[in-house]
Design brief:
Elements (H helix, E strand, L loop, with lengths): L1 H8 L1 H16 L1 H28 L9 H18 L6 H14 L3
Helix pairs in contact: 1-5, 2-3, 3-4, 4-5
């Protein structure tokens, strides 16, 4: 999560990903291609990490992993999108902590 926060806080990445998001918002075909080729593979990698957390008892074994990802990443995206507060390692840690508590066994 810290690496994701660092990427979104990087000015060069910020410009690129804002441009990509603008295009995706206005082009359904591009959005579908982005989802298929980039977003879904990344989500699967994230879910694999969450499954590891389930196996060691950090997350409830019955937790809906799609929902866990949304709870974890949506606040980060919202903060980034609206530039409402800084993206910091402490913020990343707090998102992980809150998510783990919300979906703990």
């Amino acid at each position: 999560m810290r690496a994701t926060v660092e990427e979104f806080a990087d000015p060069a990445f910020d410009r690129l990903i804002r441009a990509v998001n603008t295009e995706i918002a206005n082009d359904a075909a591009l959005a579908a291609e982005y989802r298929e080729k980039l977003a879904l593979p990344l989500e699967e990698a994230k879910k694999a990490r969450l499954r590891s957390a389930q196996e060691v008892g950090q997350l409830d074994a019955d937790a809906d992993l799609d929902l866990v990802l949304e709870v974890l990443y949506a606040p980060l995206f919202q903060r980034w999108l609206h530039r409402s507060a800084p993206l910091t390692a402490a913020y990343a840690d707090s998102l992980v902590d809150v998510t783990l508590r919300a979906f703990s066994p």
